């Protein structure tokens, strides 16, 4: 029996670029799709939120002098591109998906309607939530937290490039110490930057645990979904 019945998987856009900085790496997306589909096949209901950094990074220089709201809207559209790429790859391995966008674009994705999203999950489809919250000034971390709470996910699984939450950046400091578990308050107090403060506070207020784990270790999504200890749990 899986450890979790319903999870919200948060992926950064950079994950799809596979170290290239920006763009979409087809092999990486295929490998990720296979892993997510396998977890869904085991009976876990999965909602996914993907960031847009890999697409947006290519235009970030131009966006520097832009109005913040315009830049944020561009970022939200970048998440739609990533969501479509991931959806296509998951469908190719035989698992049904639905891309649901907070910004209406009916030719491309379904509009996000909470009850319809939950219905998709109940029917075994992977729901991919695109377009952020549709509001500027909110990150995709906040969008992921909002969707997780709305669909009544039991946990947010935040996939990263490192093993979990550390006292400082392990990619820069060799002596960084990893936490097995940590409280929301300590994450905020120490400014650990795992997710932005808004999303951490929302998780704390609603008692929604966050698991931060390394996506680059094959099988980690399945281990996490089964309730095995991977990465760091924030609760």
């Amino acid at each position: 029996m899986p450890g979790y019945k319903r999870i919200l998987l948060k992926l950064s856009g950079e994950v799809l670029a596979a170290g290239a900085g920006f763009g979409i790496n087809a092999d990486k997306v295929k490998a990720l799709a296979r892993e997510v589909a396998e977890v869904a096949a085991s009976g876990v209901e999965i909602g996914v939120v993907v960031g847009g950094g890999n697409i947006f990074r290519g235009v970030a220089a131009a966006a520097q002098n832009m109005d913040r709201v315009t830049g944020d809207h561009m970022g939200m559209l970048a998440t739609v591109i990533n969501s479509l790429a991931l959806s296509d790859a998951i469908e190719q391995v035989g698992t049904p998906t639905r891309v649901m966008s907070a910004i209406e674009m009916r030719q491309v994705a379904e509009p996000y309607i909470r009850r319809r999203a939950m219905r998709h999950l109940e029917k075994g489809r992977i729901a991919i939530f695109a377009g952020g919250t549709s509001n500027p000034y909110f990150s995709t971390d906040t969008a992921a937290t909002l969707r997780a709470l709305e669909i009544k996910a039991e946990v947010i699984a935040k996939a990263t490039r490192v093993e979990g939450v550390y006292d400082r950046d392990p990619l820069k400091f060799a002596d960084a110490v990893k936490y097995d578990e940590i409280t929301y308050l300590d994450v905020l107090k120490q400014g650990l930057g795992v997710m932005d403060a808004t999303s951490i506070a929302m998780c704390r207020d609603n008692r929604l645990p966050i698991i931060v784990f390394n996506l680059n270790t094959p099988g980690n999504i399945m281990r996490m979904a089964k309730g095995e200890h991977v990465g760091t749990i924030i609760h």
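The two ends are 23 Å apart (CA to CA). DSSP finds ten helices and eleven strands in the chain.
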